[in-house]
Amino acid sequence: MALFVDQKFQAHRTHIEEIVKDLHNLASDIGYHDLRQTVSDLRNRIHEPFMFVIVGEVKAGKSSFINALLEAKRDVCKVAPSPCTDTVQQILFGEREEVVVVNEHLKKIFTPEPILQEIAIVDTPGTNTIVAHHQEITERFIPASDLIVFVFESKNPYRQSAWDFFDFIHSDWRKKIIFVLQQKDLMNEADLTINKQGVVDYAAKKGIVQPVVFTASAKQEQEGLVEESGFAEIRAYIRENITGGKAPYLKLRNNISTSQNINDKIAAALAVRVQQYEADVVFRADIRETLESQSRKSIKQVAVLSENLLAGYDQITRRVEHTLEEGLSFFTLLKRSVSSIFDSGASPQAWIKQLSHHFEQDLQSEMRRKLEEGVGDIADQIQTMARLVDMKIKNSQTILKNNHEIFSDIAERRSTVLADLQSTFTTFLSRSENFRADGLGDQNASFSPNIATGSGLAIIGVILATVTQGAILDITGGLLTTMGLLFAGVTVGLKRRRIMDEFREEVAKGRTQLEKEVHQRLNSYINTLKDRIDANFDEFDALLELEGRSLALYTTRQKDIRKRLDDLDKAF
Q1: What one-character-per-residue DSSP string does 33-45 give?
Q2: Computed over its alpha carbons, how large is the radius of gyration of the chain?
Q3: Domain 31-245 adopts which CATH fold?
């Protein structure tokens, strides 16, 4: 009997076809290969009749149950004492009998039985057989089903393997299930009643509301004992709930529900991937904050070092200023000039040269001492920055495991990038050249031996000392040159005031230059080193950027599908 379906129904079915196609593309794009096959099966069966899937253990009487339900004059499904096939058999209405082998795991049997005009019946291999792949084959067929008929052997419906498979059907796919205790002719009525109630209770305990449980005997049905067989009740249930024009609409609603379930599985999978991405974003932000925080501490130590250097500079220049001012008095210069007649070493020029020499020695000695006091702290702070980053890399949170059922390839790629990052960073820390900067000073300048000891990072102390010493040499050298020029044409008392004014001016300039050079060069060095450390994360950043874009796209598509399914569900 051909069934009339209205235009609204056709529109809804077209809509679900489009959504299932988008689901298939999404599952494929995110790499959910098992679910992609499930969606493909659902998509291929949208236009097929309402589908009964018969499941149960080997020897539960599934094939006999199907033959009796069809009221066929022959066995449509072969009955054998042992598993005779590892294929799913889909039984469909056809004007003539025909068997079509679709693939190694599925064949279609066409037969002109009237009930098949509204439903299709699927016979599956036993779930507890030792034959390879039987349960896997059955599981692959469950998502596209519209009603699961769970067939138990009446004598023992309590086997754990059967109820484990029930959990897969009910929990994973939330399919409508009815229960049939087959071969009831092998039991007395009292024991059968007990077992039937046991299934009702067990199913209710597992979350089935008002479980539907039948007792049946295919043997009695085929022997003509219709009143005793229990099949009258089963056919009445089918007429009242499925056939009579209701099946296409029920199937469409099942398709919507299954699609929602599949979309929920995709959402759950993406949620784990998003969780890993967000953890990685936090990890990366923590690295940047660590670098910023530690570099700020280093820069503060540069300020402390600068203050100490300036204090030493002020102490030396004040002492020289006092000596110079006293030495430039009229009588002192006159005395030196007269003495120089008999001893050239006592001349004002010789005195100035000696004063300049001592000034240079004292200034260099004081600056070096201050450097050695302060530069080690800066070096230690930079070492701490690098070690903190190294520790954070080793302790980064891994949520997405390499054996993840869907995203193992992504987890493995992330794991590889992190392993490479850790290896690269360890190498980076061990090479002192990574902590040098071109143009920051003479790398062979003298330095305190204790600064250069320890790990590879101790070279920072050498560089910092070298850089700062170079700046001081520039400043003091310029200052001493200026002093030499000032004293070149000294005559008795005539230029004392001008010389002192210009000396103070040069000292002030030198002080400003020293402060500027120390801050500028060392702060620049610290920031350069921070950037070098951060550059080790370039590959990880690229992975993170790609993952962020992918997840944003996939999540948008998943939510769009969810909305379309919800809208269709409400409209149907």
Answers
A1: HHHHHHHHHHHHT
A2: 45
A3: Rossmann fold (3.40.50)
